Amino acid sequence: MSSDAHVVGPLAGLRVIELASEHAAYAGKLLADYGAEVLLVEPPGGHDTRRYGPFAEALPVDHPDRSLWFWHYNTSKQSVQLDLHSPADAAQFRQLVGFADIVLEGEAPGRLSALGLDHAHIRGPSTVWVSVTSFGRSDPRSAEPFTDLTAVAGGGLAWSCGYDDHSLPPMAALGNQGYHTASIWAAVGALLAIEGRARTGEGQLVDVSMHAALNVTTEQATQWWLVAGKTVQRQTGRHALHLPSEPIVTLAADGREVHTGFPPRTLDELVKLVRWLDDCDLRERLPLAALLDLAIEQGGMDLAKLYDDEFTQECFRTCREAIMLLAQHHTADEFFLQGQHRGFAVGMILSPEETLADPHLIARGFPTPVHQAQLGHDVVHPGLPIRFTGSPGRITAAPALR
Fold this sequence. Notes:
402 residues, alpha/beta, six-stranded parallel beta sheet, three-stranded antiparallel beta sheet, 15 helices
């Protein structure tokens, strides 16, 4: 594998062999975009995900490299086609693994073992082997078919997504959230194992269960059930809780939707909130504004009392009403900018197109132009989720089918 495909990133120097699978592809993308040398092993003719839509409409329908799905999930990787059933190609795969720091695979349990290519057969003593399956390598359910939708439903994420009207079914978590969650755990697990290897000199097997990864990433749902035996209920645009909470999305003065965030509760936040109300001459428009003064006199609110103290509940509700009132008297841009300037976690609700055009995200460098040779020009990709000032990493185009 050649290292000249990447600029220096925080993971530069790491060599990764990835066996193509849709549910682990994002883990390989993260490692590659941050500088690891990731070689994607595909079957002859390319992996099935090369034929996943949506497609680049500017290219003819019979073009082998027009999948936007593949372009997104395989940035910064290199690729090789191997038939693992062929003795010669299997030998080449073993050789590649011998040079790798990490093997990332999402194969069904038993497939690689049947070919004599599983971690027990070819993993070296210092190799980190990361396996991503639906329920874990030893669970028989991992042999059953699954999709991102069945994973988020079974893992519990879907239960928390939806509307206050529970006559409506839960919402599907769009954008491959199940695959992304499992992949993030896989990438983190791989890097922790690499850190462990630096201390001990030994690699290890990292067994990622998508079901378990999703179940521990259900925000408060699993916690409430395990600790208190309570089932959370989905609520429109806000945290799922076992008790109803106040709405947090409202229309700004210009008719655009804004997110009012979590209500102020500390002494500093309460002081800033009252000052903002006074600066806008809105105190008289808030019926229980005096409660904010009382909360300030008491040094802020203790959220531990939120479920059983009426005064805390009323203060909390009044803080929410104050933020909603401010939102309704500003344009969405004004509310966002002033709120952020004053230290409140508020924001605008943007469409995907608006997100990529947002000046704040552009200044952050999130929309990233990537040259797409098939088209002869750059296309905009979502950029790196985390930036490192000393080793930034870079996103390059997904490998073309050769």
